[in-house]
Structures are given as C-alpha cells and as structure tokens.
Specification:
Number of helices: 6
Number of domains: 1
Number of strands: 8
Strand content: 15-25%
Helix content: 25-40%
Radius of gyration: 22 Å
Shape: elongated
Structural class: alpha+beta
C-alpha cells in the first residue's frame, strides 16, 4: 500500500482506504488498511492548495516586491501602505480533497492540490467582494457587481469602492 502512495503520486494519495486496498491488490477492508497505515503514522489530511499563477505574472510580482522593499526598507515605512484584494465566492464543487500522508509530508508535491488554470468565463452564481488592510487598519467588506465576461473588477468599480471607503 505504501508503494501505491509513493508510486502513484497525488492520484494515489487521494484514494480512499478501500480504493487503496483494491489498487494494492490486497483483499482487506478499508478499516484494516487505515489501522495498518496509522501504525506507520499515515493519516488523512485536507490537501494544501496552491493557485495557478502564470510565470510572467510571478516574475512581475517578484520585481514589484523588490522595488517596494528598496523604496520602503524599514517596518515604519509600511505603516501608511494599504493592501487591497478582491475575492469571488461561488457556488458549486470547488473540490477540496483529502490525501493520505505523514505529518511531515504536508508540503510534499504529491500531497498538494494544484488548482487548475482559471477559466475566462462568467459565473452567474458568484458573489464579488473587496476589502483593504494595513497597519492598524481594516476596511469594510464591500460587495460589488461587474458586467464583463471575465468577472474581474473594472477600474470604474475600483474607484467607486475607494470613494465609498474614503467616505465611511
């Protein structure tokens, strides 16, 4: 059974106890598999998730971070900086999965769930929210609506939200 976990990577790690026994060619119940693997310190954990980021965007983010660190080198410099982000809360199966691993294997590549590249299509069952944080600062959470096909916040909506935050 350990061979299946090691050899099959992520696909092996997400198998149920019963499916793991079947894949290993062992005629035992899932409870027996669980008891045996628990003795070897294997447990079921929610897989860590990593988002897909385009390589060019990752390089741009690193370059920006280095520029900002040069511009604001001390913690005092960052007290007037605000960070904002938007989030989409949707309905449907996002699919958190459980993996079989040992406690020290949390970030093993076989135990991390990779999110798929985002689709550029509108999801009518989404709620869009925006907020900002900073040193000793937390904005309200704002819901907003966009009329584009990608579901991304437009500059017009962003300016409206900033104006609302300034007035509150």
């Amino acid at each position: 059974m350990e061979w299946v976990l090691w050899r099959c990577g992520f696909d092996g790690r997400v198998l149920s106890w019963d499916a793991l026994a079947l894949e290993a060619g062992v005629d035992v119940s899932g409870r027996t598999v669980r008891r045996h693997l628990h003795q070897k310190d294997y447990r079921r954990y929610l897989a860590c998730q990593r988002s897909w980021v385009a390589p060019a965007l990752a390089q741009t983010r690193v370059r920006f971070a280095r520029e900002m660190l040069a511009k604001y080198p001390t913690p005092q410099h960052w007290r007037n900086v605000r960070f904002s982000d938007e989030v989409y809360l949707g309905f449907g199966s996002i699919g958190r999965v459980w993996v079989t691993r040992k406690p020290e294997e949390a970030y093993c590549p076989d135990c991390v769930q990779q999110k798929k590249k985002p689709k550029e299509e509108e999801d009518s069952a989404r709620v869009h929210c925006w907020a900002a944080i900073g040193y000793d600062y937390k904005s309200s959470l704002y819901r907003y609506h966009v009329d584009n096909a990608t579901g991304k916040m437009t500059q017009k909506v962003y300016i409206e939200l900033l104006n609302q935050e300034c007035l509150s």
